[in-house]
């Protein structure tokens, strides 16, 4: 693996670390997780997390492409895009690993705790038992490790590819 590829993979790792740390901070501050549902702060915390993750990805891709441009002195669209793609792919892969780490080791009761809080919250609403059960089952599936890992991988990869295409157009070297 060459130096540029290693730098791109390292960028993906750092992007994922930043996103994981932000998730843990927001969880600690009760902006995500079961307490955020109780306090009606999940929308705020989720929005902060969602936007921040994509800002981290955008900055990571931009930084990596800029670094490769500085090293090569003549950056083609193809090389810029490949750099961005490697950052996106590594971010997607690392995010799956960190998602599994979070849901299985750091907070293995996350899904059960969310189901408990949602059950309490939905009990106070005027819903039938069937509607309540369906909503809880839907949320339990949504917060499962597999589903969150899948969302993380696909979201980072697709968004990263889009960012890579756009940034490659702007950061490629100008030719005479």
Structural write-up:
The structure is a single chain. This protein starts with a helix and ends in a 5-residue tail after the last helix. It has seven helices and no strands. The protein is elongated. With about 180 residues, it is mainly α. The mean pLDDT is about 90.
Key terms:
176 residues, mainly alpha, elongated
Short description:
By secondary structure, the chain is an all-alpha fold. It has seven helices and no strands.
Enumerate the spans where pLDDT stays under 50 for 5 or more consecutive residues: none
Which geometry do the CA atoms define?
elongated
The tally of beta strands, per DSSP, is 0
Structural class: mainly alpha
Helix content: over 70%
| Element-by-element helix/strand order | HHHHHHH
* Gyration radius, rounded: 20 Å
Q: Tally the helices.
A: 7
* Largest sheet geometry: none
Tell me the strand percentage band.
under 5%
Termini distance? 32 Å
Mean pLDDT figure: 92
